[in-house]
Design brief:
With 181 residues, the protein is an alpha/beta fold. A seven-stranded parallel beta sheet has the order 4-3-2-1-5-6-7, sandwiched between helices. The chain is built from eight helices and seven strands; from the N terminus they run E-H-E-H-E-H-E-H-E-H-E-H-H-E-H.
């Protein structure tokens, strides 16, 4: 099937519900026969998603810079752990290794990854589907701001339309699978 890259938080101090969402996402990716591509960390949502995928029998690919390996946060149980020399090369390799992208709640790193993959799509450097899971309106303020950017002509409507927004993991995977079919 497909290699689905998931962007999400690696924070160790978030609420349990976000870890549960990540575990559910990893499990659902594996149940549907896909490979999980992640940032290669073993903490926070990133660790939970990989654990969820493995628990459901799915393969995992982690992509992590050496600096984070040195901090001992690498997912050493990953089926394939790719180590890069920088955060920038990590994002490039994650894009290359993936057929589709799913973004869960997260902070600056998650947004950086989302915007990198989204920007490269608007430049037609790839045509891979991207889905944002807006659980409990987590991303609503950001989405409102992006709509305002479109209204002010800083972002073309076609660019905004490249990102599919849903409110659940099953809907996210349904959307990705329909784009990949």
């Amino acid at each position: 099937m497909a290699a689905i890259c998931v962007f999400c938080a690696s924070s160790r101090t978030i609420e349990q519900r976000w870890l549960d969402l990540a575990t559910e996402t990893g499990s659902e990716i594996a149940r549907r026969g896909h490979t999980l591509v992640s940032g290669g960390g073993c903490v926070g949502m990133m660790g939970a998603i990989a654990d969820g995928a493995r628990a459901a029998g799915g393969p995992t690919v982690g992509v992590i810079p050496q600096a984070l390996v040195d901090l001992e946060v690498a997912d050493l149980r990953s089926d394939e752990l790719l180590i890069t020399d920088s955060m920038a090369s990590r994002k490039t390799l994650m894009i290359d290794k993936s057929d589709a992208f799913l973004t869960l709640p997260g902070g600056l790193g998650t947004l950086d990854e989302l915007f990198e993959v989204w920007t490269t799509a608007t430049l037609t450097l790839h045509a891979k589907p991207m889905v944002l899971v807006d659980t409990d309106g987590f991303y609503r303020p950001l989405l409102n701001w992006l709509a305002d950017l479109t209204d002010q002509h800083f972002l073309k409507p076609a660019g905004l339309g490249l990102l599919t927004v849903v409110d659940s993991v099953p809907a996210a995977l349904d959307a990705l699978e329909s784009h990949l079919a």
